[in-house]
Design a protein that fits this description.
Two copies of one chain form a homodimer. Chain A is an alpha+beta fold. Chain A has a single domain, classed as Winged helix-like DNA-binding domain superfamily/Winged helix DNA-binding domain (Arc Repressor Mutant, subunit A), CATH 1.10.10.10. Chain A contains five helices and three strands; from the N terminus they run ααβααββα. Chain A has a three-stranded antiparallel sheet. In chain A, β2 and β3 form a beta hairpin. The radius of gyration of chain A is 17 Å and the shape is elongated. At the A-B interface, α1, α2 and α5 of A face α1, α2 and α5 of B. The structure holds a DNA duplex (30 and 30 nucleotides).
Amino acid sequence: MEQIYVDTAKMLKAISDPKRLRIVDMLSCGELCAFQLLEAFSVTQPTLSHDMKVLIEAGIVNDRREGKNTYYSLDNSVLAALQQALGGMFRPKPECICRKNGPDDS
Amino acid sequence: MEQIYVDTAKMLKAISDPKRLRIVDMLSCGELCAFQLLEAFSVTQPTLSHDMKVLIEAGIVNDRREGKNTYYSLDNSVLAALQQALGGMFRPKPECICRKNGPDDS
DNA sequence: CTCCAATATCGAAACATTCAAATAATTCAA
DNA sequence: TTGAATTATTTGAATGTTTCGATATTGGAG
């Protein structure tokens, strides 16, 4: 399977959850620390920590340690690339994959 | 949890898989029947059928029966709405969720 | 160093997803 | 109606995800 599908799917999977999508929305206007995010949700601290790790490992969120706090922020270039990749897959293309591929190599 | 997150997450989950993402890409230039899709993949017919059902239930793909064949096509309005919803969550907002919400209602 | 606050990791239970083999259903043609 | 082609559903095993309580780690205050 082509890498673009694998990479894009990995990012999508990270945000294909209402909680994590809301976290992304909350981070869209600036960085927040774990405690601020935790206040807004009905989940335990370990659960939030796990969700942040999923977002970080997908490359969507960056973390920054400052004293006892960890601040999270969106990686806007990654999100922009994700949107562009999706746009490319959703719209018709002159060199469409459906016209040039036989059985795949997966 | 607000409905926009639930709905968006459901669609994202449907395409957060390299196979299904590739299927969407293949359908982007026009409808294809199950057999045509099957030719391009190394999966069994039941697996493809299952994946198509996931896409249909998420509202991303429409199916149309014609004789013995089922033709699948993208629902472009749903995809456009998905892209718009994502754009709204990724970019900063004047009325940001992080400034008006206390503990949630989930 | 010791304690506390903030965050991360571990371990386990519950639940969901994936995928293929077997089988069923649908449609057309003869 | 029978048979062949195409697609859908069921079943079950393997795997992955979610979430929590318990515990560990990290950094600053005293």
